[in-house]
Amino acid sequence: MVFLHVAPPNPVSRQFSRQVTAWVYPLFEQNWRLFAPEPESVNRQISARTARIAPDGTVQVSAWFDLSAVDTSAVEHNVFPSHTTQNMLRRAWTTYSELQGSDDEPRSERAVMIQKYLRNIAANRVATLQHGAFESIQLRVIARPIAAPATSDAGRPAATTARAPVDTRLLPWWKVTPDGN
Fold this sequence. Notes:
A hairpin with a 5-residue loop joins strand 1 and strand 2. This protein is 39% helix and 18% strand. By secondary structure, it is α+β, with helices and mostly antiparallel strands. Strands 1, 2, 3, 4, 5 and 6 form a 6-stranded antiparallel sheet that branches. Helix 4 runs antiparallel to helix 5.
């Protein structure tokens, strides 16, 4: 499959392009970000809350749990943090937001796959840190712009920038299995 993906276009790769792409992209995403990463222009706080139906039939919703803070803490307190710790949640969100648009409706098989991937990351993390089963999970992403650095020239004052608005995005509730997967 990888050979057909990287080989020059030919009749076989054209005939099976859909299958090859479906197999290659989840496992071997190719882009230039490793060599020319785009610096982050916003800090994103990704939080999750869960819901479950109580025995009396009422819906119990948990408080928001900051998944980004857990990642940040794991990086700051680890001499050799893993790539997974640093980037899994952030890259899942970036890819989700690129594929879904602002209405959270998947428009391709890849978009559906990334939606499930983001949901599973959040559900697995909450399940390991929170006791008790839940049936649904919801994500909230708060984006705060990163200010430009001040100049170091002593004679010139740093440029003041208008306070950019904080962007909050609330995703729909997603169903999960009772153990959070």
